[in-house]
Structure formats: C-alpha cells, structure tokens
Write a structure and sequence with these properties.
- 84% of the residues lie in helices and 0% in strands.
- The chain has 113 residues and is mostly helical.
- The protein has one domain.
- Helix 1 runs antiparallel to helix 2.
- The chain is rod-shaped and about 95 Å long.
C-alpha cells in the first residue's frame, strides 16, 4: 500500500506567514502584560492602596506574570510549528527533485521479457 503526500508550497508559505504574525502578536501581548506588571509601578500602587491593596496587587501581578508566561510559551510553539511545516515542505521538495534527477539520469530502459 502506498500513500501519497502532497505538500502545497503556496499553502505552506501562507501558513508560515500566518504563524509568524500570530507569534509576533503573542510575543507583543506577553511584553505588554509584563510592562503592565512593572514592579516600580506596582510598588507605588501597592503603597497607595495600603496593606489590603498590596495583597491584591501582589495577586494580580502573579496572575499577570503567569499569563505572560503562557503567551510567551504559545508564541514559541506557534513559531516551532511554522518552522516544522516549512522544513517538511523543503524536505519534500528536495526529495522530489533528487528522485526526479535520479529517474531522469537512468535514460530509456528496454526491459527484456
């Protein structure tokens, strides 16, 4: 049993472009969240809000940092998926070209039956 694998270079290129855009957006969101959780700003806010506010502020910062970590991890995964799809397309194209060259170099063959 044989299985054919068709890799559409245009679809791969579109996927890779989209994955880069998504990766950039996730990275920017993670940076924005980390900026929002800036320690200097949070320390000032906590001081202004008193001990109860400081506890709440600390909890919010912890949540924001966790969210930023998740976004950064998602950005890395999306980037790796894009790289993997691109590598697959390159490997398939190189394999196809090598096989075509090999087939072409054999020349006409006459089989004796």
């Amino acid at each position: 049993m044989t299985t054919d694998l068709h890799v559409d270079p245009e679809a791969v290129a579109a996927y890779v472009r989209t994955s880069r855009t998504v990766q950039d957006q996730l990275t920017a969101a993670a940076v924005a969240i980390r900026t929002a959780a800036d320690v200097d700003q949070i320390d000032r806010l906590a001081a202004d809000l008193g001990s109860v506010g400081a506890t709440l502020t600390s909890a919010v910062v912890t949540i924001l940092e966790g969210h930023a970590d998740v976004l950064a991890a998602a950005a890395a995964r999306v980037g790796r998926y894009g790289e993997g799809i691109s590598t697959l397309q390159t490997t398939v194209a190189e394999t196809d070209a090598a096989h075509a060259t090999e087939i072409g170099s054999t020349g006409p063959q006459v089989l004796a039956i």
